[in-house]
Write a structure and sequence with these properties.
CATH superfamily of the domain at 2-153 and 178-192 and 215-230: Spore Coat Polysaccharide Biosynthesis Protein SpsA, Chain A
Shape: globular
Structural class: alpha/beta
Number of helices: 11
Largest sheet: 8 strands, mixed
Strand order of the largest sheet: 1-8-6-7-5-2-3-4
CATH class of the domain at 2-153 and 178-192 and 215-230: Alpha Beta
Distance between the termini: 15 Å
């Protein structure tokens, strides 16, 4: 069931405390949480992303996993120099493939909850912390909800997200305010059990739809995002929406014929 975020946003002091050892007594799963940053050609923006994440969530400073999706610049070197955990794809496979690799790696290392943050700097670290703490339930699937118009998002992004929201909401049987935001909190084992197929930007719409069908609790957390003029995006406004539609159609077929996975 889609529900509002369970708790109000913490103050700066309370939020910093929330990722400390004392908070683990109240939220035991924080000790088994991590941050996954899928990254492609992110040498310029990744250093600041890592620095800010560590500032906002000191308790997870050593639990940042960068998945380098076949970059040809210095993305991997940045992650290594920053002391992050690193997994690299030999070639560019897509954001969804990077997320699955990150989730599988996190599970193998004993993590149960993963916060995902884009490498381009559009997700402020304080907003990432809000998503991390939006629900006390470690099995909740937490969605960052953007207000693209007020954030100054390019019109093509607004249109693409609006179309995705309309169709995914229709197939889910309930309204969803943002089906494409990369700032999310995933219950790792549950998410992998859903067996999403999308390897690109279609992953995020597909895995959300499969989670809703499987009865995974969904929490929506409003967030602030940044769209600087020099921001570089790898989302193709024609190709990627079509891939989203194609992947969702396959998911619908799986569900109709009883092949949809359940956690």
């Amino acid at each position: 069931m889609v529900e509002p975020a369970a708790n109000p946003r913490p103050t700066e002091a309370a939020a910093a405390e929330a990722t400390s050892a004392s908070a683990a007594a109240r939220l035991p799963w924080l000790e088994r949480a991590c941050v996954i940053v899928p990254a492609y050609q992110a040498e310029r923006t990744l250093p600041a992303v890592i620095t800010e994440l560590r500032r906002a969530m000191p308790g997870l400073a050593d639990e940042i996993l960068v998945v380098d999706d076949g970059s040809t610049d210095g993305t991997a070197d940045v992650a290594v120099r920053a002391g992050c955990q690193l997994v690299s794809h030999g070639k560019n496979r897509g954001k969804g493939a990077a997320l699955v690799t990150g989730l599988a790696t996190a599970r193998a290392r004993g993590h149960e909850v993963a916060l995902t943050v884009d490498a381009d700097g559009q997700h402020p670290a304080d907003e990432a912390r809000s998503v991390l703490l939006a629900s006390s339930d470690p099995e909740a699937f937490v969605l960052g909800i953007r207000e693209l118009t007020t954030a100054g998002a390019p019109r093509k992004n607004q249109m693409s997200n609006g179309i995705s929201n309309f169709f995914i909401s229709r197939f889910a049987g309930r309204p969803l305010r943002d089906t494409q935001c990369g700032l999310r909190r995933y219950p790792i084992a549950t998410t992998l059990a859903l067996a999403p197929r999308g390897e690109g930007y279609d992953f995020e719409a597909e895995v959300l739809l499969r989670a809703i069908w499987a009865g995974v609790p969904i929490v929506e957390e409003p967030i602030r995002v940044l769209y600087p003029e020099d921001r570089v995006t790898h989302f193709h406004v024609v190709r990627d929406p079509w891939r989203i539609v194609r992947t969702v159609v396959v998911a619908l077929r799986d569900r109709r014929f009883g092949r949809a996975s359940s956690p």
